[in-house]
Amino acid sequence: MPPDPWRWPDPGPLPGIGPGSALPRVPAGVRSGGHGAWEGQPHLLRFAGGGLSIDVEITMGDSHLDLAGQVHPAAAGGTRVEIRTPHLSKIRFTTESGAFATTGLPHGWLSIVCHRVDAPPVATRWQCFRP
To answer: Positions of the region Disordered (predicted)?
Structure first.
């Protein structure tokens, strides 16, 4: 059967990062209580594994998500972070301290892949952010 053109291709498991844990946890999960539950308020997630952790702060707007994060420990120069959605990918290079950010992501599913120069890439599991 040919692949479904409307689905994000699954690259298969990448080494390292396990399920994210919310810090602090929204009582009903990421998709909680309607748009007002955390609209405009940052939602914090931490992913750990593969010898690193990725802290992510997501702020939900009316029509988009803004994302800021930091890779720990800060990786060597040339490290890039790929923020994936089923519709687009954004590439950001980390600062010397491991920070990265992007704006204008669509509501819905997203995953982050850290591409390090000196190690295999590590990917987070997919998370869904909806109003």
So the answer is: 1-35
| Percentage of residues of the chain with pLDDT beyond 70 | 69
pTM of this structure: 0.70
For 21-129, CATH gives 2.60.40
Residue 51 phi, psi (nearest 5): 80, 10
CB neighbours (10 Å) of residue 47? 26
Between CA 12 and CA 14 the distance in angstroms is 6
The reply to whether omega before 5 is within 30° of 0 (cis) is: no
Residue pLDDT, tens place only, 4-30:
443 434 444 444 444 443 333 333 334
C-alpha to C-alpha distance for 95 and 77, rounded to whole angstroms: 8
Rounded distance, CA 111 to CA 121, Å? 13
pLDDT value of residue 49: 87
CA–CA separation, 119 vs 81, rounded Å?
13
- With tokens 């594994």, the residue in question is 49
